[in-house]
Design goal:
Blueprint (H helix, E strand, L loop, with lengths): L1 H22 L7 H28 L3 E7 L2 E8 L1 E3 L4 E2 L6 E2 L4 H14 L26 H5 L24 H15 L3 H12 L5 E2 L12 E3 L4 E3 L14 H4 L1 E3 L1 H12 L6 H8 L3 E5 L3 E5 L4 E3 L5 E8 L2 E8 L4 E7 L1 E2 L5 H4 L1 H16 L1
Parallel strand pairs: 7-16
Antiparallel strand pairs: 1-2, 1-15, 3-4, 5-9, 6-9, 7-8, 10-11, 11-12, 12-13, 13-14, 14-15
Length: 364
């Protein structure tokens, strides 16, 4: 139905253009440019209609940005970054992005690889003392990156033979953080802040280095009744999360900058980017379903091709999607979740928006 609507819209516009060209022949019309402009306008209107309804239906408290390369298709902020003093969310609001952080940690590892300081097939125990236990000694760096190590938590038995399955592990990514510190001889925070600065992400940091005033405090509950999650954002460094696994703070604008820079090969080399994006295992996501997993990134290799990662720490559900064929970013950040209704309920707005984006991407 959407294709039909778009076709009729484009046909009408092109017919109008042709008629105008016959009348004023000295001004040739670039039909391709007009068609592209019509598609862009169509997308902007449809995103506005569909996503505004998501805000209304779910009383979404957060920020959503959709960009096609550097063109804004949709942008809206709603609700409060601080419910106690009624501070409204705006374009400068900094959110906890939770496990979206994992792609940043993965890129830091890949940058160390490019410098010749490690190999993805190296045994991780070579660099990380927590993995020098006999049961862990054969885990490779790549297996930590794609969650195929069998590791769950440090000190526990492996869930399966390394390389033979998938188990999502924060401790696996915290081990990667320790590897980065070992080979770089700098703290993880120093490495991360350097990467963010290099990328041009001026309003991003980690939970342990944040010094700004625009942080979106996180809450459990709803817009009427909520409870603040204490000690944010420093609690992201706690054992059950960990900064390398889920401790980056960012904004809609900065994540848009990150997506454009990363997938255009400006941060890591094109051949390294291919490793990052290549499906090396498969994940059964509790909310998003079956998908491929690369090195700290999930992907849908069917139509439309997309790379994405969800994130959740208490009160902060997030989703960052990139569609490479159209260079489109869909970024959804929030700072409240009604945990009594379950995590899947917190992600319903994100799923609705992803469905809309998938439909529009398939039209292209």
């Amino acid at each position: 139905m959407l294709k039909k609507i778009l076709f009729i819209s484009l046909l009408s516009l092109l017919l109008f253009s042709c008629q105008k060209t016959e009348t004023v022949r000295q001004q040739p019309v670039n039909k391709t440019a007009i068609a592209d402009s019509a598609v862009l306008t169509f997308q902007q209107k449809l995103y506005t209609t569909q996503i505004d309804s998501v805000f209304s239906r779910y009383n979404f408290n957060g920020s959503i940005g959709i960009f096609k390369d550097n063109t804004e298709l949709y942008r809206r902020n709603n609700g409060f970054s601080n419910f106690e003093n009624k501070t409204e969310i705006n374009d400068s609001t900094v959110f906890s992005i939770a496990s979206i952080s994992k792609q940043f940690t993965a890129v830091l590892i890949l940058l160390q690889m490019e410098q010749g300081k490690l190999n993805l097939n190296d045994k991780a125990s070579k660099y990380c003392k927590e993995l020098q236990k006999k049961e862990y000694e054969n885990i490779t760096i790549q297996q930590l990156l794609n969650h195929s190590s069998g590791l769950n938590n440090f000190g526990e038995k492996l869930l399966f033979k390394s390389g033979s399955g998938f188990n999502y592990s924060n401790d696996g990514f915290n081990a990667l953080g320790k590897i980065i510190e070992t080979v770089s001889e700098k703290s993880f925070d120093e490495n991360m802040l350097e990467l963010l600065k290099k990328t041009g992400m001026k309003n991003s940091s980690t939970g342990t280095t944040f010094k700004g005033e625009n942080f979106a405090q996180t809450y459990v509950g709803n817009s009427k009744i909520q409870k603040k999650v204490e000690n944010m954002p420093k609690r992201l460094a706690n054992k059950e999360i960990g900064i390398p696994a889920g401790g980056v703070l960012s904004t809609i604008n900065d994540l848009h900058i990150w997506n454009n820079a990363l997938y255009s090969g400006k941060i890591i080399k094109p051949e390294t980017l291919k490793k990052f994006m290549a499906k090396s295992t498969e994940r059964q996501h509790p909310i998003l379903g079956t998908m491929g997993y690369g090195l700290g990134i999930m992907m849908n290799d069917n139509k439309p091709v997309s790379y994405f990662h969800s994130g959740y720490v208490k009160g902060a559900p997030s989703l960052n999607i990139y569609y490479p064929e159209t260079k489109t970013s869909v970024i959804i950040l929030s700072n409240i979740a009604d945990e009594e209704k379950g995590k899947s309920a917190a992600f319903r707005p994100h799923l609705k928006i992803k469905e809309t984006a998938d439909i529009l991407e398939n039209i292209n």
